[in-house]
Amino acid sequence: MSLTLSASLFASAWAAFLLGPLLVGRRRWAVRNPTLALHAWALLFVGGALGAGFGLVLVLRSAAEVTRELGSGRQLTACQTCHAAAVYGASWLMTAAVATAVCVAAYGWSGSVLHRRRIRRVTRGAAAGLPGQVVDGVRLSLLPSESYAAAGTPGRRSRVVVTTALLTLLDDDELRSVVAHESAHLRLGHRLLLGVAQLQGRCLAGFACAAEAQRSLALLAELAADDRAARRCGPTVTASALAKVAEASGDEAMRLRARRTSLAAA
């Protein structure tokens, strides 16, 4: 019973890991409901991880019981011998699979964390020295640059950095929508979410859907932040800001995001 249950949990875990990327990959419902799609993907990922963990615990527990039976000196029937072989084989296979996934994830996560910390130290120190202001309770730093860009710096002293070119391009209401967009990324934990998606992509490197899922999740995070900004500042203002940046930078993806947000205002 334990072997069957553990095998079912393990199979369900792998199905969840594979279904998650397929669920968010270029689906219309996901584009319409990006926050729901991100939550569904995260739920499948967490459920898959828990299923794999519980399945491994159960099969190891079964292996320990079989070891105690073998150590008792009792003569095993042919059926019991086959069961013991199946339990040992399953325990080795599941342990190897989980250990490989954990090692790949740990290696990728450690490198990602170190890289992120270095970037955070540099950006936070640079942002603190930039001139700025407060917009809707959010600290805004201005970066002298001719590119049209904005980014949020995470941490306890989080702030939003925008370039002077972007500040010149937008009016006050549109700037507020940009600040709301970047603040949404910080509050909704999109950095962590995309970091986990990157780890999943490394674990599923042999599957074609893995890279596509990473791109889809990054787009959904942008759409979710657009929706949050539209609710705070209005869809017309948010669409106008996206359209201006798309026109100035030639970003076709942002032009499509502006069209999507403007449709919500109609």
Structural notes for this entry:
- The chain is of the alpha+beta class and 266 residues long.
- It has a domain at 1-128.
- Helices cover 78% and strands 7% of the residues.
- It has 10 helices and 4 strands.
- A 4-stranded mixed sheet has the order 1-2-4-3, with helices on both faces.
- A hairpin with a 2-residue loop joins strand 1 (132-135) and strand 2.
- The chain is elongated and about 85 Å long.
- The model has no long low-confidence stretch (mean pLDDT 78).
**Strand arrangement in the largest pleated sheet:** 1-2-4-3
**Which parts are unreliable, with pLDDT below 50 for 5 consecutive residues or more?**
none
Query: What is the CA-based Rg, rounded?
Result: 25 Å
Helix content: over 70%
Would you spell out the secondary-structure blueprint of this structure?
Layout: H1 2-24, H2 28-32, H3 34-71, H4 78-128, E1 132-135, E2 138-143, E3 150-153, E4 159-163, H5 164-169, H6 172-187, H7 190-203, H8 208-233, H9 235-249, H10 252-265
